[in-house]
Amino acid sequence: MNKPLVLVVEDDRPVRNLIVTTLKSHDYRYLTAENGKTAIMEASSHNPDIVLLDLGLPDIDGTEVITNIRGWSNMPIIVISARSEDSDKITALDAGADDYLTKPFSVEELLARLRVTQRRLLLLKSSNDAGKPVFQNGELKIDYAASCVYLKGEEMHLTPIEYKLLCLLSHNVGKVLTHTYITMQIWGSSRENDIASLRVFMATLRKKLEPEKTSPQYIQTHIGIGYRMLRVD
Question: Which residue range is the domain that position 159 belongs to?
Answer without folding.
Answer: 132-229
